[in-house]
Amino acid sequence: METLVLIVHVLLAAAIIGLVLIQQGKGAEAGASFGGGASQTVFGASGSGGFLVKVTALIAAVLFATSFALAYFAKEKAVNVGEAGIPSAAIIESAAERVELPVLGAPVSGGIAEDTDLPAAE
C-alpha cells in the first residue's frame, strides 16, 4: 500500500510541475491584446487560465493527501522499530558515557618499538 501511495505521490508531483510550467504568467495578457494568442487557443478566447488553475488546485490537494498518508506510514514504521528490540536513545547515550576514550597526545601502547631505525621526531 505504501509503495502505491509513493508512486501516486511522485506522479502527482511531476504533474503539478508540468501544469505550473505550461500556465501563462501575468505578463502574457499584454501580448494577447495586440492580436496574438486569443484566437489560437484550444480553450477558447478566455484562455486556459481557469481550467488549468482548477486542475492544478485539485492535483495539489491530492498531493497533500498523499503526503499525509506517507507521513502516517513513516510514523507506523517508527513505532514498529521501537518494538523490535532496538535500544532507546537514553540507553545508547548512557553506554557511550561509560566508554573511556584515549587522550590526544598520550603514548599509545603496542606501537613502534624504541629500538628501530626510524629517526626520532623532534
TrEMBL record:
Keywords (A to Z) from UniProt: Cell membrane, Membrane, Protein transport, Translocation, Transmembrane, Transmembrane helix, Transport
Q: What's one GO BP annotation on this UniProt entry? A: protein transport by the Sec complex
Q: Where is it predominantly found?
A: membrane
Is this entry keyworded Cell membrane? yes
| Membrane disposition | Multi-pass membrane protein
Q: Subcellular location, in the record's words?
A: Cell membrane
Q: Which Pfam families match?
A: SecG
Q: Does the keyword Cell membrane apply?
A: yes
Write out the GO MF terms: protein-transporting ATPase activity
- TM regions (residue ranges): 51-73
InterPro entries membership: SecG
* Listed GO CC annotations: plasma membrane
Family of this protein: Belongs to the SecG family.
Q: What is this protein's function?
A: Involved in protein export. Participates in an early event of protein translocation.
Spell out the protein name for this chain. Answer: Protein-export membrane protein SecG
Annotated organism of origin:
Nitrincola tapanii
Q: What is the lineage of its organism?
A: Bacteria, Pseudomonadati, Pseudomonadota, Gammaproteobacteria, Oceanospirillales
Q: Its encoding gene is what?
A: secG
